[in-house]
Amino acid sequence: MVYIPPDFEAPIVPELDEAERELDATILAALPEGCKIGSIVVHGASHWALSHRIDTTLPDGTEKPYFLKVLSGQLGKEMAKGEYEGDKAMHAVIPNNVPKPLAHGTYTKDPNRHFYLCEFHEMDDEMPSAQQFVAVVAELHKKSVSPTGKFGFSCTTHAGNHPLQNEWCDVWEEFFTRQLREEVEWERSVQGQDSEMDELLEAMFSKVIPRLLRPLQTGGRSIKPSLCHGDLWHGNVGVDMGTDEPILYDPCATYAHNEYDMTSWRSARYRTNRHHQTAYHKFIEISEPIEDRDDRNALYALRNNITVSAQWHANKSTRKLAIEEMRRLVAKYPDGIEGFKE
Q1: Which reaction does it catalyse (predicted)?
Q2: Is residue 74 domain-resident?
């Protein structure tokens, strides 16, 4: 069972407005030439975007559906680009498991309205089996190659509607620290300041993060920047009803330490758990030092709790979870990197 706090407010799915009853010229230009448009229906919503299903008939008579996400403002424009580039990069590696992206752009008739367009998959709202799911994720990690050989991504991607720090970086510890610092500031701006959390974070940045991440790239050890989905909770995973293949979508993609994609495979609020981690490591070995794996996972999951806390002002529980985990890690690694023994 997935725990849903009582104060969670799901986004309202509105009716199709007049502006969406006919497709904008920019969207039509991105669809296959000569296709005929059938129905356009609302197909879900978030707090910052509205999704549609577009049914078409291709010139050869084949019926083909497409998925359209509509966003507004400069932030919406950047989000559409980030999702397009993320899906494009993933689709190039695991084409059977990521919707094929077609285009992103700005409406001709409304420069404040932007879109992302991809192929539509009819999906069952169930998680694939753990073995199926982790096999696809492992394939993405193993076969992907960072275009720069560094950690980061070619454009800004987003945690929800929050832009992430994705500038290219040679050192994973530096990349993760930079991203986490920025997300902590975001969370603090939403939830307010907490003196204990501030004190713990100081120790996290000076002691715990160097202790857990620096050994990955020192002492003759190395890690490959792997393409990570970046937000692999159950809401971004489905099963294609036609092929029974797992489908990964709505990424905040980045080239990262492959274990980073397990950020949500620890918390009770998700349909993924530690069994998925065990199954995953049958495909890809645990990074050295092996004995640090669980605490590295806790560190990555901590970042997920901070992000969730920032996205949802009414939620006070995930900050508490983050503080509890920081207490444990700070107590375990008081000497920081100086306490690491080969």
Answers
A1: N(6)-D-ribulosyl-L-lysyl-[protein] + ATP = N(6)-(3-O-phospho-D-ribulosyl)-L-lysyl-[protein] + ADP + H(+)
A2: yes
DSSP H helices in the chain? 25-30, 73-93, 130-143, 172-191, 195-203, 209-213, 274-280, 293-311, 317-332
Q: What is the DSSP letter of 11?
A: P
Closest-CA residue to 181 (of 306, 292, 335): 306
Residues 169 and 303 in one domain: yes
Tell me the two tokens of residue 22: 């006919």
For 50, 115, 117, 261, the CA distances from 89, given in Å and listed in that order, are 23, 18, 15, 16
* Total domains present in the chain: 2
Cα angle 140, 145, 146; round to 5:
115
Q: Is residue 4 part of a domain?
A: no
pLDDT in tens, 179-201: 999 999 999 999 999 999 999 99
Whether residue 91 is found in the same domain as residue 188: no
The predicted-structure confidence for 128-151, as pLDDT tens digits, reads as follows: 999 999 999 999 999 999 999 999
pTM of the shown model: 0.92
